[in-house]
Amino acid sequence: MEKVHKTAIISPKAEIHPAVEIGPNVFIDDNVEIGKGTKIYANAYITGYTTIGEDNEIHMGAVIGHDPQDLAFDKTICSHVEIGNKNIIREYCTIHRGTRPDSRTFIGNNNYLMGGAHIAHNVTIGSNVIIANYAFFGGYVTIGDNAFISGGVGVHQFVSIGRFAMISGNGSFSQDVPPFLVGLERNVVESVNIVGLRRAGIAKDTIREIKEAYHILYLSGLLKHQAIDKMESAGFTSDEAAEFILFVKNTKRPIASHRNRK
Questions:
Q1: Considering the domain boundaries, does residue 175 fall inside one?
Q2: Which tens digits make up the pLDDT trace of 147-171?
Q3: How far is 28 from 9, CA to CA, in rounded Å?
Q4: Are residues 147 and 239 in the same domain?
Q5: Which string of DSSP letters, residue by residue, matches the chain?
Q6: pLDDT tens, residue by residue, 90-149
Q7: N or C: which end of the chain has fewer CB within 10 A?
Q8: pLDDT class for 84, splitting at 50, 70, 90?
Q9: What is the per-residue pLDDT for 259?
């Protein structure tokens, strides 16, 4: 297609690299910056104070940088969306800007957001994350690198989901999910994400330590503070085990509970 379709509406104040492709009926507002190699398909709407990096794909009907769905939001403030490089944002995704002055919604690099995903204000998404169709995140949610969020998952505001977590379809989470775990249903975890860790090339000894930490936290019958003390004294040597312990130690919300799949 042409680099910029004749029906696109682009503010002269927007900063767009000459190598960006812009399809039919795209709308790009004043305070938007878009890096080279990005391709924007028909009917996308990009507004607010939005910065988009290089080599992204933004598909049909996506809305990026629009006002947050927050009744207390002041439309006159400056708040942001920041998107890194090589992300794929599929049809009808919505990504809203921050709700407080100078705050941001942030998406890293190499993420895949499938059709209809909703990213609310002040969400932070790492890199190499897959978010399947119609998953939706409330405000201030944090998603760690390499997480996999299946279709229809709902995540309550302020919840954190750790690195390499895998969340099963239609799950509902108002509690934090530590890194490297499999989450499902309502605020439940069932195991370590062994398949995901193996595919990522995580060493066997590291996986063993994560499994042992999981057992201490969820299956030993200890209270949370007791489990943290035991994990910290267990002699783990891997960065991943330390990451797991630190997540559990620092979370300000309850963490998802263990239950065997029936």
A1: no
A2: 999 999 999 999 999 999 999 999 9
A3: 6
A4: no
A5: --SB-TT-EE-TTSEE-TT-EE-TT-EE-TTEEE-TT-EE-TT-EE-SEEEE-SS-EE-TT-EEEEPPS-TT--TTS--EEEE-SS-EE-TT-EEEPPSSTT-EEEE-SS-EE-TT-EE-TT-EE-SS-EE-TT-EE-TT-EE-TT-EE-TT-EE-TT-EE-TT-EE-TT-EESSBB-TTEEEETBTEEEEE-HHHHHHTT--HHHHHHHHHHHHHHHHS---HHHHHHHHHTS----HHHHHHHHHHHH-SSPBPEE----
A6: 999 999 999 999 999 999 999 999 999 999 999 999 999 999 999 999 999 999 999 999
A7: C
A8: very high
A9: 83
Instruction: Provide the token pair at 167.
Output: 């969340």
pLDDT at residue 2 in the model: 59
Domain hosting residue 210, numbered range: 197-258
Q: Are residues 61 and 128 in the same domain?
A: yes
Residues 150 and 211 in one domain: no
- Whole-prediction pTM: 0.96
Q: Any idea how long the chain is?
A: 262
Here the tokens at position 104 are: 């941001």
Closest CA to 247 of 165, 187, 162: 162
